[in-house]
Every structure is written in C-alpha cells, then in structure tokens.
C-alpha cells in the first residue's frame, strides 16, 4: 500500500500483508517507560544552578577549616591553647557584629559587587594571621588579624537567596533547595575540620589556614561570576528591617538555643573522648553526627511536607531534636562507651537538618525579598552566639561535674528552643497553635513552606 513520503516520526506506518493490517510504530522508546525526574535533578536542571552551587561549595568548605586551623597553628607555635581559644573567640565576636552589615551591603549593591571585595579583605586577614604566627609577632597582632576575617560573606545565605530568587512561588522546590543547602553545610563542617587537621599535621602548621584562604577566594570568585542567577540588587528596600519583622526575634531566640546545642555537643564530646584516652577520635565521632544530619537533610528535601506549614512543623522538629539528644546522654552516662556514643550521635544528628531547614524556611518567609541575605545572616549570627554560649556552658559542666554530665547541656538547650517555639511564638488567644505572626512580604504566597 503506498504511503505518504512525508510524515511525523511518531506517526505509525500502516501496511497490508495478505488479509492482515500491520501497524509499525517508529516513535522512540525508553526503557521502563518515562520516569519522572527526582526533586534534586529538577533542581539542578535549572539554568546556572550547577555552576553557582559548585562555586559556593568550594567557598563554603573553608568555613569548617578556619577555626580548627587557627587553633592548631597558634597552639602549635605559641604553646598556648588559651591564646588560641581567645583569638578564635575574638574572631567569632567580630563576625557576629560585622556579618549583618556585610549582608545588608550585599542586598543593597549585589552579591558580585560586595562579596568579592569583602572576601579579598578577609583573605588578607587570614594571610596576616599566618605571617604573624610564623614570624613570632606580638600576641595583639593575632587578635587584630583574625578579627579582620569577619568580613567573610555568608556564602550559604547568598546561595539560599539565589534559590529563593529562582524558585519564587514554588514552595516545594524551595523546600528541596533549603534541604540541600543544609546538607551541604553539614558536609562542609564534617569534612572541613578533618581536612584542616590533615594539612596542619602532614605539612606545616600554617597549611590549613593557607589552603582555606585559597579555597575561599577561588570559590567566591567562581560563585559571583555566575551573574545570570544573581538576585537583583535593591538600592532602597520597601520592607522593614529583618530584625524588626514580626516573628523574627523569637526565631532568632530559637537559633540561639539551637546553636547552644551544637557548641556544647562539640566541647563535651572532645572532653569525653579525652577522658577515655581517645582524644584523636573526637573528630571522627563528631563527624558521625554531621553525617546523620546530612543524610536526614537529603531525605527531608526529597519528601513533600504533607499539609502542615513550616511554622507548625518547627515545634515537632524541635521536639524530635530534644528527644534524640537524650541518646548521647544515656550512652555516655550509662555505658561510658565511646563506640556507643558514636552511634547515639549518628542518630541524634538526624534531627538537626530538618530543624535547621524549617527554621531557615521561616526566616526566608518573614524577611523582605530584597533583604534576604541580611535576614539569613542574622539567623547565622544567632547560631554563632549560641555556639559560643553552649561551648562555655559545656566546658563549665565538664570541669565542675563530669564529661558524661556535660551531655545534659545540649538536651537543656534543645528543650529551651522547643519552649520558645511553644510559648513565645504562640500569642494568647490565637486559633493557630504555633503562629509566627504575619509575613513581612506583601506579595508572597501563603502556601505552606
């Protein structure tokens, strides 16, 4: 039977053999049928997403390296852990003051125009610290040099701001993006200290700081070069300051208490491992906690939050964190086994990422769209303040009571965060049990986050 000479490749070929009509379909086939793309694949199929993520991950890795490198470098050459701790604490305090202002400039003038010069200044501070330590400069120069690194931009916040810009109006995709970012944070803080310790121990004491500075500058340069995904700068913001936004200050209180969980857990775990004669294993044990959080973050991002909004999920996440933080306390207090403690920390860490993802989602919701970097940097500042307080409380408990009893500090801090979410964030007479106040974005969808 004659057929048309021009046809679509999806049109079946019809032919007649004897008394049978045969249809041949030449349309393309895929094995197993068509599979829908997973949430993370859809995320990174967005134009420019892979490029800016690669640069950001390179820039974010040194965040887990600098403090460990500074402590090893200063203590190794000056013979004083007290001096090393004081220098890093000064840098932490300077960052808490300077970081929100740097983020405000990023929102106002754009990521590329502010982040790269700020990074150059911070890298010069790191190099100055390295030279001062190497050449035996007076102690005060170490404080001044490390304080100069406070201009380091919040690379995680800038990446989250790009996702919020690219995924505006798509709450499910933004949930996946925030989960990925939290998992990336955990991965960097898991690998960073290990890499820093390896470099400082294998080569020379200043190697960790030097490599971290190079990675930071290269990563930020690559990240800011991706201009197509950069959120537009807002010279004049129409929204109120993030700190004054409804619901923001209680969220910062939650961040402060959550940071205390992280800070106390680190100090107490190091002390517990040291008391058992395995101080060198403390890093690996803490890495298991970060690994549990990283895995939970990726799973949490692949799931679709059913029904409940982020504001009602947060208390449940904090309740899970409080309950799971009891596991290390029981493992340390009842068994005294470092191996069982490692398993308990792996499980306990699984509540961290969902809690932080939900918290950051709420920070994004209640921050004006043109001041996202400032809002998320305020949250990070709260976490840093909590880490400092938790470290001090954990150290005091270890010194005055015992290392095992020190695991009661993260439990108390998690319970405090839960209490804030249940009491401070719930106005009397509200119909919603866990309201956070009205959103600070007039144009934002009210869909659950």
Automatic annotation (TrEMBL):
Ranges in a coiled coil: none
Transmembrane helix is among the record's keywords: yes
UniProtKB keywords: Membrane, Transmembrane, Transmembrane helix
Domain of life: Bacteria
Keyword Transmembrane helix: yes
UniProt xrefs under Pfam families: MFS_1
GO molecular function terms noted in the UniProt entry: transmembrane transporter activity
Transmembrane segment boundaries: 57-75, 82-102, 114-133, 250-272, 284-303, 315-334, 340-363, 375-398, 404-426
Full protein name: MFS transporter
Protein species of origin: Streptomyces capillispiralis
